[in-house]
Backbone:
């Protein structure tokens, strides 16, 4: 069954991804992805450099973050990324019902990420660790909030693809679907950089 | 459903649980920090190459991402260690 589907995917995909001008999702989305990754990585490197000036404060602040919540949030994003990738595979072989179902699962995990992040933020604010508490928490709030904004934009894109597939009069194009999923995976990639540097290495 | 995506997901989940476990079980100095950051870079590459299908793209896109993540991990480790 799986082999048959994989064969169908190879046949259905007509875009030559090996061409430098046509990576999966298109050139523009990949330029956006690289720019976003570079922006976040510069901020993370600045954060790590700042930690050298006051190692004790960064260590103590880092211990205030809940690794458990961060881990569950990582799992939510990974499950969402897997669901989006599976949804795209089904879309390529024109199994739109299966594709929509997995897209819905991806959206659900995205919402769960936002809900858990909100719980974490409320807890941080209740315990007094706001954006101005110290340098560590200034970076924490700026980096994670900037990431959450990307997740929200990604969710809007996924929801619009879902509704277009379900109720839209214009047929969803493969290139648009791929670009939307690439943006969603980018949120995953950014989180995979943020999570160890903010939560784990202190 | 692509079988390889399922394996990738299982691998990513296990690596995530492992990194969390390591960070909570050991003092985060030297080896443990290197281990956590290298695993994070590995997860990053799995998502990019498998879920984002970068494995199918032109070598230039692949090398750019490899260059980015290696530089990032190298700089962070240079500053920290």
Residues:
């Amino acid at each position: 069954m799986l082999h048959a589907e994989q064969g169908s995917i190879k046949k259905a995909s007509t875009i030559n991804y090996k061409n430098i001008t046509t990576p999966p999702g298109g050139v523009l989305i990949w330029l956006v992805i690289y720019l976003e990754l570079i922006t976040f990585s510069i901020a993370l490197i600045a954060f790590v450099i700042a930690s050298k000036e006051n190692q004790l404060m960064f260590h103590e602040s880092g211990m205030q973050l809940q690794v458990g919540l961060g881990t569950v949030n990582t799992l939510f994003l990974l499950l969402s990324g897997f669901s989006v990738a599976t949804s795209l595979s089904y879309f390529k072989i024109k199994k739109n019902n299966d594709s929509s179902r997995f897209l819905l699962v991806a959206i659900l995990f995205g919402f769960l990420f936002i809900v858990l992040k909100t719980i974490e933020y409320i807890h941080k604010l209740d315990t007094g660790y706001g954006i101005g508490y110290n340098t560590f928490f200034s970076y924490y709030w700026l980096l994670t909030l900037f990431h959450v904004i990307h997740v929200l934009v990604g969710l809007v894109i996924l929801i619009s693809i879902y509704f277009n597939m379900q109720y839209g009069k214009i047929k969803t194009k493969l290139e648009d679907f791929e670009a939307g999923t690439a943006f969603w995976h980018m949120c995953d990639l950014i989180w995979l950089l943020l999570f160890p540097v903010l939560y784990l290495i202190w | 459903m692509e079988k390889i995506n399922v394996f990738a997901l299982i691998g990513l989940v296990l690596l995530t649980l492992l990194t969390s476990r390591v960070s909570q079980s050991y003092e985060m100095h030297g080896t443990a920090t290197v281990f956590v950051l290298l695993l994070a870079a590995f997860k990053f590459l799995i998502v990019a190459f498998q879920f984002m299908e970068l494995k199918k793209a032109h070598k230039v896109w692949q090398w750019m991402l490899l260059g980015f993540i290696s530089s990032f991990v190298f700089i962070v480790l240079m500053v920290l260690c």
